[in-house]
Design a protein that fits this description.
The protein is mainly alpha-helical. The chain contains 19 helices and 10 strands. The protein folds into 2 domains: 351 residues, Methylmalonyl-CoA mutase (TIM Barrel, Alpha-Beta Barrel); 99 residues, Glutamate mutase, C-terminal domain (Alpha-Beta Complex), CATH 3.90.970.
């Protein structure tokens, strides 16, 4: 087993500013515009707090008032395309005032390939259309990011991480956006191949400390802890990695987290995941001395394959919004029908906002009531997450950063599908008769016997109902259960 130097320890000011000067700002020429942090923080305060468009404050207030914030996603190659598209959605849908923006950077930016992002920008100008699947924030730099911030009415956050999102986050925060997603484990398992987890945690420690510095100096931040992964993951595993990330981010000084749940599309199981995760994030943070941290529950949509037809895609999006509202989410991240084939269009996103806001109106104060099935699901999830947490804490002698790295090596920490070469990948998942996600084989994960038996019993009920065996064919078939179009009898 490898030996690791990583520890869950706050970066000192000396360490932080050394990394900033030597590793982060020199990554691309636009980093020069961020050298004066005092000026960056002052401008960010003016553009977010000063204009009443601070992401963290808006999220906190909505949570306290019981308001649902709708959160469309958008990313185009050029700044003028971004402003045109985002203003279109705000003008053609009821996004304002109860809305947020999730802005995507392009794939080259996420992989720190800024030279190729520059090529994409030039081609977009020449072709008169977007040739990138997001906005290349690092190439355009802080002044262009501020231009977008001034043009739109809703607070914004940046979704740009993969291996190293530090310069992108620096740019976004200095422009008055929210950023610095706290999700090193998710990034490795969802978007990376070769980077080691200890290296990714070290990178993410910088981003978390950056967000905390802005927060401490009067520009509140609410970094996302996401469990979106690849879309084919158990609710218990998702909850576990979010609790781990809560400890890692809190150590760096973050005071408010946006818990972003990539749902599995079973209302009872997803609601249980949201409740258990928030409870255990608070409990473990209290245990390690982080006593003043706020966690706000929000949901994203299913991260697996979407069906390639408007009607079925709309049904999935409607279900996701209903799960978020009835499960207790504050913000609802939206997809649109275009995404079965391409990146979101402004027309598609405006339509999704209108659909989601009307569902919010129709559901009113209706919430998922407490019931035996929900309590049982919460109990099993809590048993699973506690077992995983305690195993990793024990391995790391109380240090979760070390323990999670050792857990990956030992195969305790793994999921079914991942591009990451360090993921052991001998976990198998399938749906039960109610389409909840269950373990068919939990591999080397240290799950309590009670949890294993619960999952097996649920799967046996499906096998009996369908009159077919539980086997690998069922695992494969379930990968497309949501994207497969129905057969029309003629």
């Amino acid at each position: 087993m490898a030996k690791y130097e990583i520890r869950n320890k706050r970066l000192t000011d000396e360490e932080f500013f050394r990394i900033r000067k030597e590793e982060v700002l020199p990554q691309w020429e636009t980093g020069r515009d961020l050298e004066n942090m005092d000026e960056c923080i002052s401008a960010a305060h003016e553009l977010s707090v000063g204009l009443g468009r601070n992401y963290a404050i808006t999220l906190r207030d909505a949570n306290e008032q019981g308001i649902h914030l709708l959160q469309p996603q958008f990313g185009r190659a050029l700044t003028e395309y971004m402003i045109d598209g985002m203003c279109y959605v705000e003008d053609e849908s009821p996004l304002v005032p109860a809305g947020l923006w999730n802005v995507f950077s392009d794939s080259y930016t996420r992989k720190n390939n800024y030279k190729m992002a520059a090529v994409g920008i030039e081609r977009s100008i020449q072709e008169g259309t977007t040739m990138l699947n997001g906005w290349p924030i690092v190439n355009f730099g802080v002044e262009e990011a501020r231009k977008i911030k001034r043009a739109v009415k809703s607070p914004m956050t940046l979704n740009s991480t993969d291996e190293d999102g530090r310069l992108a986050s620096e740019t976004a925060l200095a422009a008055g956006w929210n950023a610095c997603n706290c999700r090193s484990i998710t990034e490795c398992m969802a978007h990376c191949k070769n980077i080691r987890l200890d290296e990714e945690i070290h990178i993410n420690q910088y981003e978390s400390r950056l967000a905390a510095i802005y927060h401490e100096r009067g520009v509140p931040q609410s970094p996302h802890i996401s469990c979106n992964l690849t879309g084919y993951d158990s609710c218990g595993f998702k909850s576990f990695i979010m609790v781990v990330q809560a400890l890692l981010g809190s150590e760096q000084g973050i005071k408010q987290f946006y818990l972003e749940f990539g749902i599995n599309m079973n209302m009872v199981q997803d609601a249980a995941m949201m409740r258990v995760t928030k409870k255990l994030c608070e409990e473990y943070c209290q245990r390690f001395g982080y006593t003043d941290v706020r966690f706000i529950v929000n949901n994203n949509m299913f991260q697996g394959a979407f069906p390639p037809r408007l009607e079925e895609a709309s049904a999935m999006m409607n279900l996701a919004v209903m799960i978020g509202i009835m499960g207790g989410s504050t913000a609802l991240v939206l997809k649109c029908q275009d995404e079965a084939f391409a990146t979101p269009t402004k027309e598609g996103m405006a339509a999704s906002v209108r659909m989601a806001r009307h569902l919010d109106t129709l559901l009113g104060a209706l919430r998922l009531p407490d019931n035996a099935a929900l309590r049982e699901e919460e109990h099993m999830l809590e048993l699973e997450v506690r077992a995983m947490m305690e195993k990793c804490l024990e391995a790391g002698d109380g240090d979760i950063a070390l323990g999670i790295c050792l857990g990956v090596d030992a195969g305790w920490v793994q999921t079914m599908i991942s591009p990451w070469k360090y993921n052991r990948g001998n976990v198998l998942l399938m749906r039960d008769a109610e389409n909840a996600m269950r373990y068919f084989n939990c591999g080397d994960m240290p799950l309590p016997n009670e949890v294993k038996q619960y999952h097996l019993d649920k799967l046996k009920s499906r096998a009996a109902k369908e009159g077919r065996p539980l086997d690998f064919d069922m695992v494969v078939s379930d990968l497309q259960y949501a994207s497969r179009l129905p057969i029309i009898q003629k």
